[in-house]
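EI: anyone free to look at a 188-residue chain?
SC: sure, send it
EI:
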Amino acid sequence: MSEKMARIRSIHIAGFDVAHVIHRHGLSDKSAYEVEAALMDAYPGITNIMSGHGSGDVGAMHSSEIIKKYSAETAKFEHKALIISVNRSSLDNSLYEAIRYAWRLNKKKASEAEIILANVQGVIVGAFTAEEWLEATAENFPGRETVEGRYGFVGHEASIDLQKLYVSKRTPDEFRKKGASNPIRYTW
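SC: here you go
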């Protein structure tokens, strides 16, 4: 049973009915996506599998995060950088653990990257170097589940010099395509 159906069932068992509330109607598709995303951000307990349209870049943020994001200098890439977008909820563990596993990407091309950059809502928050890309298996990454067709890397935090070049900088717009669902971007 899906999480959504389980939630509906528990509401019925508690003696209640599921209410259908239309917050806005008669909207253009663009406006409807914005309202949907805002409501999904406002009600984090809902059971939607996907986050709201555009939530990764313009979703709910603390005011200080917004100021940091828009006042940050835009990164200028001097290295072959692989940018991986992660959401804040995946940062429950260390940033390294969130960024290194399990991505659908071109292993050969990823191996050419000189630096791996962690991107959260348009800002680079971490820089790593990969020593090796491996299939995302429990054998290669103990304590993790095997994820077919995906890869992860073994590496370490980038040097201080590389971090200074990229961390806390904005990811250039050309590498943050609106509505794109693939979290992987290559700068070369």
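EI: The helical segments are 3-13, 29-42, 55-58, 63-71, 95-99, 107-111, 160-166.
SC: 👍
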